[in-house]
Amino acid sequence: MRFVHTADWQLGMTRYFLNGEAQPRYSAARRDVVAELGRVAAESGAEFVVVAGDVFEHNQLAPRDVSQSLEAMRAIGVPVYLLPGNHDPLDASSVYTSALFTTECPDNVTVLARAGVHEVRPGVQLVAAPWTSKAPSSDPVADVLADLSADGAVRIVVGHGGVDIFVPDKDRPSLIRLAALEAAIDRGVVHYVALGDKHSRMQVGSTGRIWYSGSPEVTNYDDIEADPGHVLIVDVDEDDPAHPARVEPRKVGRWRFVTLRRGVDSGRDVTDLDINLDLLPDKERTVVRLALTGSLTVTDKAALDRCLDKYDRLFAALSLWEKQTDIAVMPADGEFDDLGIGGFAASAVDELVGTARSDGEAADDARAALALLLRLSDRGAA
């Protein structure tokens, strides 16, 4: 028996740092990767798809987002099982109980709204642990494991949330206890655990049967999400009484959120940064966050600004990581000697240079003025 494990679609997600028209493209990409699961299921021979929570970004979605999301699910073709998670819990305002969702929900889509066992077909069961609020008072998964018995059925647990071994706050009521999952596996009552919440693909514990699939499309920078953009194709052997499971990741995401850390202390360093940014492929689907440190002359800083302005127009987004960026700007000796000006103007430039070499707000203003002067004089224009 083969199925696709995915999670954290978070359809309707927005990212504030995306450039104007990049946000609609990103939203469309998140829907497209859902529809793409139809091809993955067909190629792999998967019987069904389980979505382990956070199908939607939140419960208050625009009607257009709901309709387009359901149409993407329809395109998958095989049965799709949706688990409400912490972003879209099955509470009083749930998107899953809205008139629009219930009216337009495709026949191949089932919401795992009831905690406990759901039969996929004879001998294959899903054990669902949906969130019914944003603050569960107990481990939502352990609660559905207690009454299971080893009767030969293949069982896949579908849960959502943080596992206790990864979270410092061990007293949080909603934590999923790894010990309870592993005990159920040892008893032979559970054969695979499909988890959502972590946006990176991750095996949990040592059984090989407990996995986070991660989000199928990236949601955060690569220093936070190490391995996003996958779904998991899971094989469970129905003929072997132990029902061993085999997991194969499949890359489906196309966007990247990249963090680049660079030292910039010379014009050559700025040129190298330019080359590195130029070599990054798929710029329309790439978001870059730069952590830059160093000391530059006013001329080199102006070159850096031109570089950043250029690539800001090319990438889906490009920004400086303010907390990790520290660039000192200091006029070099003789840097403004060949501007071809004299008299009062030359004296004013000398005064600006002196102020720029000091500290404080006036120094920052002087450096900005000198940079503007270089741009107006076309010094080093690209």
Overview of this protein structure:
Belongs to the SbcD family. The protein is α/β, with parallel strands linked by helices. The chain has two domains: 2-251, Metallo-dependent phosphatases (Purple Acid Phosphatase, chain A, domain 2, 4-Layer Sandwich); 256-380, no CATH class. It contains nine helices and 16 strands. A six-stranded mixed β-sheet has the order 4-3-2-1-11-12, with helices on one face. A six-stranded mixed β-sheet has the order 5-6-7-8-10-9, with no helix packed on it. Strands 13, 14, 15 and 16 form a four-stranded parallel β-sheet that branches. α5 (178-186) links the parallel β7 (154-160) and β8. It starts with a strand and ends in a 6-residue tail after the last helix. The relative contact order is 0.10. The mean pLDDT is 89.
How many domain regions? 2
Strand content: 15-25%
Radius of gyration: 27 Å
Low-confidence stretches: none
User: Order of strands across the widest beta sheet?
Assistant: 4-3-2-1-11-12
CATH architecture of the largest domain: 4-Layer Sandwich
What is the typical, i.e. mean, pLDDT? 89
Helix content: 25-40%
Q: What's the CATH class of the largest domain, please? A: Alpha Beta
Query: CATH superfamily name of the largest domain?
Result: Metallo-dependent phosphatases
What is the N-to-C order of secondary-structure elements (H for helix, E for strand)?
A: EHEHEHEEEHEHEEEEEEHEHEEHH
Count every beta strand, where a strand is a DSSP E run of 2 or more residues: 16
- How many individual helices? 9
Distance between the termini: 60 Å
> Helices and strands: which structural class?
alpha/beta
Q: Which fold does the CATH topology of the largest domain refer to?
A: Purple Acid Phosphatase, chain A, domain 2
* Main sheet characteristics: 6 strands, mixed
Judging from the principal axes of the Cα atoms, what is the shape? elongated
Keywords: Exonuclease, Hydrolase, Nuclease
Protein name: Nuclease SbcCD subunit D
Family: Belongs to the SbcD family.
GO molecular function: exonuclease activity
